[in-house]
């Protein structure tokens, strides 16, 4: 087998068809068919099988794809490591991160790098963990700040990647200071069954938890901007859930936050291909992110300027 065949397999797996792979690679469909046929001959088994209208990986195909990802990662790392050496430790690091980290952790990371490592340049893309994971696997991002819940299994696709745990944070109920539950030390989700909610688009876990408790949440607003969510809560439209991470950013007056009982901790971690840690610029960013996250983990979010008071 060769690199070209693995590249074609990767696109066939991503698009689910020879036609889609050909379009993505700029090949003819016959060229894609040729490379896939040669790959099957080389390994002695079909890497894909047609199920309905899509091509899906066989067990052999999954093994090949996993190794292909690692090979392409090593090639990208070699290219960037050479570029970093030429730039005397500098270079570009493409980072993808979830929303609340973009307004809390990352600004401090960028500022520290600007002072201590001015030769390192950063670009940032905001994305939810599923999309961030895809970008890293595809080589469209070098480093990711991701999050998941402590009771979740290792997300698919991370088995061969390097995962660096940074910190955990709790979930809080955020409400007006005149809310009936504002005087409680903690709040259980079941106690909020009759509440109106201002929530983000990505709320599958919240909805499932409500269903398990026997109620359907009355979501009166769907907003993906933290400040807009707080403004609507402050207006009295409803209450919301926010992470400790998000509570470190400037918040509106008149709001209080209370820990949500019986809710799993959220884990924040760095995700990258193992080969990338040898790239000086990437290693520099990793060091600063870990140091900054360590300070965050040791800090009480309630002491952050502008956070909702009363907790």
Helix/strand layout:
Blueprint: H1 3-15, H2 18-25, H3 29-43, E1 48-51, E2 54-57, H4 59-86, E3 91-97, H5 99-103, H6 105-116, E4 120-126, H7 129-137, E5 143-149, E6 162-169, E7 171-176, E8 187-188, E9 196-199, H8 204-212, E10 218-222, H9 226-235, E11 240-243, E12 255-261, E13 266-272, H10 280-297
Parallel strand pairs: 3-4, 3-5, 8-12, 9-10
Antiparallel strand pairs: 1-2, 5-13, 6-13, 7-11, 7-12
Helix pairs in contact: 1-2, 1-3, 1-4, 2-3, 6-10
InterPro entries: LysR_HTH_N, LysR_subst-bd, WH-like_DNA-bd_sf, WH_DNA-bd_sf
Protein name: Putative LysR family transcriptional regulator
Pfam families: HTH_1, LysR_substrate
Roughly how many Å is the radius of gyration? Answer: 23 Å
Largest sheet: 5 strands, mixed
Average pLDDT, all residues? 88
Shape: globular
Query: What class do helices, strands and sheet pairing give?
Result: alpha/beta
Count of discrete structural domains? 3
Q: Return residue spans where pLDDT drops below 50 for at least 5 consecutive residues.
A: 302-311
In helices, the fraction of residues equals: 40-55%
Q: Beta-strand level of the residues, as a percent range? A: 15-25%
The helix count comes to 10
CATH architecture of the largest domain: 3-Layer(aba) Sandwich
CATH superfamily of the largest domain, by name, is Periplasmic binding protein-like II
Order of H and E elements: HHHEEHEHHEHEEEEEHEHEEEH
């Amino acid at each position: 087998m060769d690199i070209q065949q693995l590249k074609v397999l990767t696109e066939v797996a991503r698009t689910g068809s020879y036609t889609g792979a050909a379009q993505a690679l700029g090949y003819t469909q016959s060229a894609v068919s040729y490379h896939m046929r040669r790959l099957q001959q080389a390994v002695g088994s079909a890497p894909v099988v047609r199920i309905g209208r899509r091509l899906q990986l066989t067990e052999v195909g999954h093994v090949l794809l996993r190794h292909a990802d690692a090979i392409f990662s090593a090639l990208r790392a070699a290219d960037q490591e050479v570029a970093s050496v030429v730039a005397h430790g500098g270079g570009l690091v493409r980072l993808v991160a979830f929303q609340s980290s973009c307004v809390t952790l990352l600004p401090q990371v960028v500022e520290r790098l600007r002072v201590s490592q001015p030769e390192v340049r950063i670009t940032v893309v905001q994305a939810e963990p599923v999309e961030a994971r895809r970008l890293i696997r595809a080589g469209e991002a070098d480093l990711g700040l991701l999050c998941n819940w402590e009771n979740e299994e290792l997300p698919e696709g991370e088995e061969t990647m390097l995962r660096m745990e940074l910190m955990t944070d709790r979930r809080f109920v955020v409400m007006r200071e005149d809310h009936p539950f504002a005087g409680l030390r903690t709040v259980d989700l079941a106690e909020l069954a009759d509440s109106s909610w201002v929530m983000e688009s990505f709320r599958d876990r919240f909805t499932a938890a409500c269903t398990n408790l026997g109620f359907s949440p009355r979501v009166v607003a769907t907003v993906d901007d933290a400040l807009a969510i707080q403004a609507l809560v402050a207006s009295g439209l409803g209450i919301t859930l926010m992470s400790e991470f998000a509570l470190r950013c400037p918040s509106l007056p008149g709001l209080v936050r209370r820990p949500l009982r019986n809710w799993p901790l959220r884990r924040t971690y760095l995700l990258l291909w193992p080969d990338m840690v040898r790239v000086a610029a990437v290693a520099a960013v990793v060091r600063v992110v870990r140091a900054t996250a360590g300070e965050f983990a040791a800090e009480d979010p309630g002491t952050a300027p502008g956070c909702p008071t009363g907790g």
